[in-house]
């Protein structure tokens, strides 16, 4: 698909559609489908519980979660999982 009028394009359409079908929001599905390793298996990311509150805060900041500065670690984990 060609990019027109500055509308973001989905890099991995198949993965995007599968995520939307599973109930992910269009925004979250697009964010996942547009990662560099979209559709590849074998991720090595640590679980949210293994990360520090600062790391969780930075991830929340990166994806634009509002109210993150007042959240506890548990609240940040919940917000990241449900965004």
From TrEMBL:
Domain of life of the source: Bacteria
SUPFAM superfamilies named in the record: Rho N-terminal domain-like
Xref: InterPro entries: DUF7218, Rho-like_N, Rho_N_sf
BP GO annotations: DNA-templated transcription termination
Domain named Rho termination factor-like N-terminal: residues: 52-80
Species of origin: Maribacter hydrothermalis
Protein name: Rho termination factor
UniProt-listed Pfam families: DUF7218 (PF23855), Rho_N (PF07498)
């Amino acid at each position: 698909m060609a990019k027109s009028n500055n509308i973001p394009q989905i890099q991995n359409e198949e993965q995007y559609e599968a995520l939307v079908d599973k109930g992910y929001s269009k925004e979250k599905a697009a964010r996942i489908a547009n990662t560099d390793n979209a559709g590849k298996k074998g991720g090595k990311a640590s679980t949210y519980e293994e990360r520090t509150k600062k790391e969780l805060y930075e991830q929340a900041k990166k994806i634009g979660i509002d109210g993150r500065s007042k959240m506890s670690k548990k609240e940040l984990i919940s917000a990241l999982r449900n965004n």
